[in-house]
Amino acid sequence: MADQYAQNPVGTEPPTLPSLRWDEPPEGPVLVLLDQTRLPAEEVELVCTDVPALVRAIQTLAVRGAPLLGIAGAYGVALAAVRGYDVDEAVTLLESARPTAVNLAHGVRRAAAGYRTAVDKGADAEQAARAALVAARELHREDAEASARMAEHGLVLLDELLPGGGHRILTHCNTGALVSGGEGTAFAVALKAHRAGRLRRLWVDETRPLLQGARLTAFEAARNGMPYTLLTDNAAGSLFAAGEVDAVLIGADRIAADGSVANKVGSYPLAVLAKYHHVPFVVVAPTTTVDLSTPDGASIEVEQRPGQEVTEVTAPHVAGAGAGAGGLPVAPLGTQAYNPAFDVTPPDLVTAIVTEQGALSPVTGAGIAELCARSRQVTIS
Fold it and tell me: Which residues does the annotation mark as catalytic?
């Protein structure tokens, strides 16, 4: 089950709760998640004692973001193993929790491989469970390291594309510490530019339909003292037309073998705008987000979200309030809604893909394969 674990009103102090952590209280190991559906009003943790609770947290977006989903999935396998649940069943439940973000399945399979390898070598249940936990912790550490390297590579690329500093960056959805074992993907690049004194403005798309830019990216930007401005998604075109955007930085939930990028819905229109206005469109994601078994963008399964996320407006929970009982209708009863969680940007609209292995430009299938091969060599060595 998942229960409210801790509650801290949000002020101007630094964040007090990590996005995800493993804990071992006397009553048994648990996976503790920062409930992102409660932000920015308050910081509340959920305690997951079993995999079904974690799956619910994933599907309700209490925990979200491609890299963090991979970490959560790995810890979910460890949780099942440590508590004596069916690991194979846990793997099946977790892998299917959200279809588009490939990192989730990657993390699940990595921890499961650690568990099964230990079993094959004669380990008992406790030893095998410990092996799964070790694999999850290794993935967590590697993602934090990858985040730092992506930030470095991304800032170098920005400075090459935009000499002179004073970068005005437009971003979409949320790609900071809330989605990562470190400081994020695209947001980490903007944050590094800010710390280097080279960020003039971070333009933050509110990001429909769940307002993850307004609720989460603006929250992280404010916490880090960054110069930022929030805008409605459909105002981005006027920013480009006014010459106010120097680069677009987004994350990714899946990158196909040809370089097609699935990201939060609204990313593809930004790529089209950027192309027309000759503005670099840069994707920042770890190599774990690349799925070589998905040949192209048309092969990416795009998750469809409930229509009520469009037909209703649900305000974030306010500090001290309980769970909300639904949203305020903004469309006539019975209105059908088209609500894909993601869209797909073809590689010819992507200026560069930045990973922990460096920046790839132009984006080609051969280049994607080389990045992945390089990543495997680093991991093995």
Answer: 253
